[in-house]
Design brief:
mainly beta; 5 helices; single chain; five-stranded mixed β-sheet
């Protein structure tokens, strides 16, 4: 392809996107080769997208068996999902060394991240289980780097956009059955069922899609001796149900209505999620202590959305309105949160957040050289927490504009800006500038500068008690003077797309965060009135700065007619500065991450793959090791940082017929053991045990991959 042909073909592609948009009610019969929608809000070739972006295809999702969103992204360059483990056993998504709370999750472009901390005390990972069934997903697009210009708050680290399948013109669907059985009985077995069916009710006029997912996991034995926090997963039951109704009243209009309901339940009988009320976890005796947890935890989400797409003579107009309610159950009001004798101690703690989001966006070509995107967002959020003195709400409205400008036949520039107005702290501006240069037919160079921001959570802005920690023993105070965190990101990448599907890329990145929110010192000197009654409470202030930087390398190599090799490597480093002094790393991301997969399509029916992953050392403790003291220093001297490791997995799939596909995988092929411990002696002379691979306290650093596990699956298409 010559450069002279590029603008014309790109314009044709855009006109096709406007005529048959990504969110059209009925899917196209023929898809464009490799397109993404998340980087600019309209379809474009991946290499032309003004961002560092990766795509996880439906085929990859179906052949590797994933329980939640984090597991589905573990092989993507720049992403680390094993830096920390949530209390429920799920993984966290960290992009380019940024903590997981800087990653914005979208489904079909709709915000899933919530404004208030509805899953406090280390349960945020539970929200990654609210994922459509694999059979309902078309692909997952991952943007590495800030995207606040298009998506606003929370997109400082990057964006994960789950693109679901569109309603087809003919009835069909998929039923999938999966089961995982660990070789060792210490770990619980898993079963999974997912369903997707869709088709027309009235041909080319009215269609429907239904989806569902059921997951069960048996309890794993405790890894740590005794009671309390443990990284081994608890018994789990989870389901999601959803449906989409699509209406095409005319050739230029599409209307859709989508409903989704998700529920996850975890057993807390042995206190591994939190210290139970009125119960001694060591002896089983009844007590009077009220620590804030029942014998289970559950997380619910209900979401309904309606949208409209209009293909206008001059462009594509898309709008949607969504209401999502997320709730945590199984928490109680602990003794420390109320005065002595208060009647509501031990009562159910209501934890619920409601988010209403209206989005609208117009994409229009202007002449031969410009594609403009303009839009706005209105976001109303409310947090109900019976621990707090009152309910809290916020309203944010936003306007944004972006222009992709074809400067020459080979060079394009994307310039954009967004204004967000928050009713608590005023306005924030998020600009970005990006260049894409087609140096030759095979080589593309791209890079840019962008800024992002992250608004404080609703409960962080409260002038009063905002939460509870330490298993119900310590108070957290909000700070109404908090400012948003801000970031500036720069990146430069080179992409190669050669013959026979050979491709490679290299990207350098640097992120800088200002006004980072962290725990402060004596809150009585910071004009927070609630500190007078709680002088020893933990509270938040803007006093940190942080940096992350690194390089991402990828390659796809066709070795032979039916053989291919995929490789990626990420080097990431970071530092955090508190009160002018360096204080260790920003996150638990390993410095070195690498993935490799060898695939052999032995026949048209049988495919086999071998995958390896490497994770380097990561920090055992927060902060600067030079400042460690007491037991922290003794443990660090004896055990050091968390050790790196390598894992290998083997799998394959066999298509028995057009309707039936069978799969079999072996995860942790060489049965590496992550449950071993090493001794260290504390300041009292007592021998303690610590793991080389994880450390559990209030949270768990590192992860505990299950031993050798056999996973089988069957997929039935109809």
């Amino acid at each position: 392809m010559t450069h002279a042909a590029t603008p014309r073909l790109r314009r044709i592609s855009l006109l096709l996107a406007l005529a048959f948009p990504a969110d059209a009610a009925f899917a196209r019969d023929a898809e464009l080769d490799t397109v993404v929608v998340s980087a600019s809000g309209f379809e474009q070739e991946l290499k032309q997208a003004p961002a560092s972006i990766s795509v996880v295809t439906r085929e990859e999702l179906e052949t590797r068996q994933y329980r939640d969103l984090a597991e589905a992204l573990q092989n993507v360059e720049g992403i680390d999902v094993r830096g920390a483990t949530g209390k429920t056993g799920s993984l966290n998504i960290s992009i380019r060394g940024m903590p997981s709370e800087y990653t914005l999750i979208l489904i079909d472009g709709r915000r899933q991240s919530v404004a208030g901390d509805v899953t406090p005390n280390g349960f945020g990972d539970a929200l990654t289980s609210f994922m459509p069934p694999v059979s309902a997903i078309e692909r997952i697009e991952v943007i590495r780097g800030p995207m606040s210009t298009l998506y606003g708050s929370d997109a400082m680290g990057g964006v994960v956009n789950i693109i679901t399948r569109k309603v087809a013109r003919e009835w069909g669907g998929t039923v999938g059955i999966e089961a995982g059985v660990p070789q060792h009985r210490d770990f619980g077995a898993s079963q999974k069922l997912n369903l997707y069916a869709n088709g027309p009710i009235m041909q080319d006029r009215l269609g429907i899609a239904v989806r569902g997912n059921l997951f069960q996991r048996a309890e794993s034995d405790r890894i740590r001796a005794g009671t309390g926090r443990d990284p081994a997963p608890a018994e789990t039951e989870q389901y999601t149900l959803g449906a989409r109704l699509t209406l095409t009243p005319g050739k230029d209009h599409d209307i859709w209505l989508d409903f989704d309901r998700a529920h996850t339940w975890y057993d807390n009988e042995d206190c591994r999620l939190g210290t139970r009320d009125n119960y001694n976890c060591n002896t089983g005796a009844v007590t009077t202590a009220v620590n804030g947890y029942r014998d289970y935890l559950a997380f619910d989400r209900s979401q309904i959305a309606i949208g409209h797409t209009s293909r206008l003579p001059f462009g594509l107009l898309e709008s949607s309105l969504m209401r999502a309610v997320t709730e945590t159950k199984g928490r109680t009001i602990p003794t420390a949160a109320r005065p002595p004798g208060s009647p509501d101690v031990g009562a159910n703690r209501e934890l619920e957040t409601t988010n209403i989001v209206f989005d609208t966006k117009l994409v229009a070509p202007i002449g031969e050289s410009h594609v403009a995107t303009v839009g706005g967002q209105w976001w109303d959020a409310e947090l109900v927490d019976s621990l707090l003195p009152e309910d809290h709400a916020q309203a944010i409205w936003s306007l944004f504009a972006e222009d992709e400008w074809r400067l020459t036949q080979a060079l394009s520039a994307t310039l954009g800006m967004r204004y967000d107005h928050h009713d608590a702290f005023g306005g924030e501006i998020s600009p970005r500038a990006y260049l894409v240069w087609d140096a030759t037919t095979d080589w593309t160079v791209k890079g840019g500068v962008s800024q992002g921001f992250k608004a404080p959570r609703l409960n962080q802005l409260i002038d009063g008690v905002s939460g509870i920690g330490g298993q119900g023993t310590s108070i957290n105070i909000g700070n109404p003077n908090l400012k948003p965190e801000k970031s500036t990101s720069t990146e430069l990448g080179v992409l190669y797309g050669g013959p026979a599907s050979l491709s490679a890329s290299a990207t350098l990145f640097h992120n800088r965060i200002e006004d980072k929110i962290s725990s402060g010192g004596d809150c009585t000197v910071n004009f927070i009135s609630s500190c007078v009654a709680n002088p020893g409470a933990t509270y938040s202030i803007n006093n940190d700065e942080a940096k992350t930087w690194g390089v991402e390398l990828t390659a796809r190599i066709p070795l032979a007619a039916r053989w291919s090799l995929n490789l990626n490597y990420t080097w990431t480093d970071s530092e955090i500065t508190q009160n002018g002094s360096k204080n260790g790393k920003l996150s638990d991301t390993a410095e070195h991450l690498a993935n490799a997969q060898l695939r052999w399509d032995t026949t048209d029916r049988l495919s086999l793959w071998l995958r390896g992953e490497y994770r380097g050392d990561s920090r055992r403790f927060d902060g600067d090791p030079a400042a460690f003291a007491g037991n922290t220093l003794l443990e660090y001297q004896a055990l050091g940082d968390l050790e790196g490791y390598s894992l290998f997995h083997l799998g394959g799939s066999y298509r028995m017929s057009k309707s039936v596909t069978l799969g079999a995988n072996v995860f942790n092929l060489f049965d590496k053991d992550f449950t071993e411990f090493e001794p260290w002696v504390d300041s009292g002379g007592v021998t303690q045990l610590g793991s080389p691979y994880f450390r559990s306290a209030q949270s768990t650093k590192g992860t505990v991959p299950v031993g050798r596990t056999f996973w089988v699956s069957a997929s039935f298409n109809f």
